[in-house]
Amino acid sequence: MGLLSRLKDISTGKVKAFLDEAERPEEMIPQLLNELQSQQQALRNAEAKSLTAVRAAQRRLEETMGRALRLERGAELALKKGEEETAREALREQLKVEQVVPRQREQVEQAQKILDDVRERGNALKAQIALVKEKEVQLKTRPEPALSPDRTEPLLKKVAEMEERVLTEEAEAEANREVNQNLRKRSLDERLFELEKNDEIEKRLNQIKTGN
To answer: Is 147 a domain residue?
Structure first.
């Protein structure tokens, strides 16, 4: 989310201060408005994508939880039919499926947080656009200034003074650390799960047998 990283440092107060301190703000307003409105459109697109991601993550979680429930019911049915080995197999698969649920819940929370951030920045950007337009109206009563050379450097870059390269490197470093940690944990987690799952299968099988 490089767009969000940039916009978090562009507060309404900074935009106002930038215009107040500019020698000829009327020359900068059209370009600044254009950049802000472009960012607003990008945020609208990001909101649509984020909402899709939230719904997809929720759907995956619901499907996983539904499969775990079906496996539990299948184990009960298999045991009633006298197919104890089938019941064991269903419970073994249920344990595997349940192991996925916490990670999928976390994915839902992360997707929702991104969506909330996008919407928050969208509201802030809307306020900034309103501020710049208000400033434009105020400046219309002033005499026409002499034209100055075209300024092609993005004004939002001046306001934010953020470098996308640095943000990207930080994100990649964090992702690499997370991947390495997951790789180190996976082997131990798998061994521990193998040690525990047979006892858990027997426990669930006995619960079905006894009706507890």
So the answer is: no
